[in-house]
Write a structure and sequence with these properties.
Blueprint (H helix, E strand, L loop, with lengths): L8 E2 L5 E2 L19 E5 L6 E7 L6 E8 L4 E8 L4 E5 L6 E9 L2 E10 L2
Antiparallel strand pairs: 1-2, 3-4, 4-7, 5-6, 5-8, 8-9
Length: 118
Amino acid sequence: MMLWPSIGASTGSGVRVYSLCGSLPLYYNQPGSDEVNTHAYPNPFTNHTTIAYQLPQGCSRADLIISDMNGEVIKKYTVTNAFNTIELSVGSLPTGTYTFSLSTSMGNFPGGKMIKVE
């Protein structure tokens, strides 16, 4: 008895199952009162990137914090629930990996990583 079809195998119903590396971003979930959903695109980026966010229920504003990999805050933006994206012009940042997070009255929420390339 086979519990899992092999990569690219037919499941018998005409559907093919494939294995994908990595994980799905959190923004596909509907946020509850204790979570936020964020993602950056394009990622990697050169001069501009957009960060999409959805604040937790009951929260109307937050600080979007961009940090380097040493945890040093590089930039800080105030965002509200009136919008769900912010476009950043970050061409002046050096090439490297950065993190973004949201700080709200309900706590701090990790966002993810974004990569600046030349």
